[in-house]
Amino acid sequence: MKKITLLSLFAACLAIFSSCDTIKKPANQYLGRYFSLTGNWKLVSTTDNNAQTGTIVTVSPAIASGFVKSVANNSYCYRATDEAWKSLSSKSGGGFTINHLASACNGSMVYKSGEITVLTNSQIRINTKTVTDAALVQEWTRVTN
């Protein structure tokens, strides 16, 4: 019984620490250090008529997802606790890939793939698509609340 418990504990620790690698990556050659998406991110600008501007998404350590903490300018039917960013994964050349929640209207969650570019330690840019497949560029700033 002790072997099974110890093995389960080891597997859980391995899963947690390997997941952290999906949210940490050398940001780019300019920053020269590791970058983590962990924390709160506020949408400050977007190319789709400022839809969702002011919304805050929280990325927690050890999971490759970001959940809506608070919603603003809600054009896409987001709800607090919706998984806004999923399948976050670091790219070999820096930055991250993402599946971004494009719409939660009509009872279904529609995700679009995209990329996150690290601008500074407290700013990121997401290039993705809207629910109608129009190009979408969003800029997010790290916030403390």
Q: How do you describe this structure in short?
A:
The protein is mostly beta strands and 145 residues long.
Question: Could you walk me through the main structural features you see in this protein, from its secondary elements to its overall organization?
Answer:
This protein is mainly beta and about 140 residues long. It has a single domain, classed as Lipocalin (Beta Barrel). It is about 15% helix and about 45% strand.
Structural descriptors:
145 residues; mainly beta; 8-stranded antiparallel barrel; two-stranded antiparallel sheet; 1 helix; globular
Highest CATH level, the class: Mainly Beta
As for the number of domains, it is 1
Across the major sheet, the strand order is 3-4-5-6-7-8-9-10
Kindly state the number of beta strands.
10
| Number of helical elements | 1
Relative strand content: over 45%
CATH topology title:
Lipocalin
**End-to-end distance, in Å?**
43 Å
Largest beta-sheet characterization: 8 strands, antiparallel, barrel
Radius of gyration: 16 Å
> Whole-number average pLDDT?
83
Break the fold down into its secondary structure elements and pairings.
Elements lengths: L1 H19 L3 E3 L7 E3 L2 E8 L9 E4 L6 E5 L12 E8 L5 E8 L6 E11 L2 E7 L5 E9 L2
Antiparallel strand pairs: 1-2, 3-4, 3-10, 4-5, 5-6, 6-7, 7-8, 8-9, 9-10
